[in-house]
Design goal:
With 501 residues, this protein is of the alpha+beta class. Helices cover 58% and strands 15% of the residues. The protein has 13 helices and twelve strands. A hairpin with a 4-residue loop joins β11 and β12.
Length: 501
Amino acid sequence: MFRISTSLRLKITVIVFFSTLLTIIISWSISNHFIEQFYISHTKNSLVHTYDSCNEFFSDASNIRAIEREEIVSLYGYVDNPANAAIYVIDPKNFNVFTSVKLNEKTAIGIQAIIQKYDLSSFYISDKKYKIVRNIVQASENTEQAGGAYYDLVGVLDNGYSIILRAPAEQLNDSSVFTARLFTTISMGILLIETLIVLYISNMFSRPIIEMSRVAKRMSELDFSARVNVRSNDEIGALGESMNNLSGKLEKSIKDLKSANLELSNDIREREHIEEMRSEFLSHVSHELKTPLAIIQGYAEGIKSGVADDPETLDYYCGVISDEASKMNALVMKLIDLNQLETGDDISIEHFNVTELIQETINNSSILLQDKKTQITFDEKEPVFVWADSFMIEEVVTNYLSNAIHHVKDDGEIKVWYEMSDNVLRVNVYNDGENISDEDLEKIFIKFYKTDPARTREYGGSGIGLSIVAAIMKAHNKDYGVYNTENGVVFYFELDIHSGV
């Protein structure tokens, strides 16, 4: 239900209804006054017309002789009588009465009373030969006509005869009342029809406006999928088309703004991440270089101050300095490699025998294995060809093996084996060292992270090797990871198998 205060359709209908009703009331009030005046004027004009017709009739002597010979008994039909008045024409010489109605004694007395009431002699010398008056007649005065109001024309004809024309006013009143009622009925019918027409027209125009209002509300709620169903080519249709265009442009602008905002947010996050990485990098590098530099500085100052005064001590000092310099050089080279991977250097994808690559890497680690008094078990003999960058994968295998050798127990076991499924090869590297804590498992591939800094320092670890593995595998978009077993730790990485060979 629409309230009048919010419905344009009902507003238009109510305004038109009451304006039309007011117009009808004003018209009815005015016409109700003039209808009576019109009928009075019409009656008087009709009496005058009847008078003129009687004057013409009695001006013809043959008509008078026909009446005297009683060839004409009544004036009815011989005289035009639009007022339907009772006609009384009196010969003043012998008081003969010529009438259109039945004449009796009481009627004659009444006519005589009217003649006596008005001075008819004044009409003979006047330019106007008659006058019209309104009389109230009692019922006892006249048996032919009921009592009531009458309009009487009293005067004289050109031939000297007196004339009385009497028209009942009651008929006039009935006519005016009937006309007023007819006017009221027609007005109410017109008002009803006009209201229905206005309701239909206002509904026709308000329906698209209501629809556009709903669409505008949805647009205000940032729902730009709503569209106005344009059905016309007029101004309302043009407005609906404009709203559709506006909705489309706003939707595109919002999408562009959101995309730009998302891109800006990503850029900000990327900058923050880069800044964090830079700060972290500087912190880790300074930390990693601080110890070897301090050692180099200390031993160099010892040599300078003459502490190493014998060849054996001097050789030892120089060996320490050379060893720490080598570690620093290795650290720098690894940082360079890691930086190249993280900055997105292109990788060279090729197919190669990963079994052969792993075997060669194991052979190259034989000296480290002898120092650790352990051995590596690798039972895979069949060639397996994969798609990858062979140089980078060799780096992954080297880092995994180096990590396993440094953490395996003395006289412990290192084992390398394959798992295959859906053309994917998983290479597993196991060592029976101590399990890694859950907290360290989540961070072990983070750059410069060390599970045991003191132990890492013993074998010269920098915490970069596994982060290089992570960067290489991310560049290949392949999975990698680590998990604990009952007696040790397993590191793994995956590669796509080259099925064409």
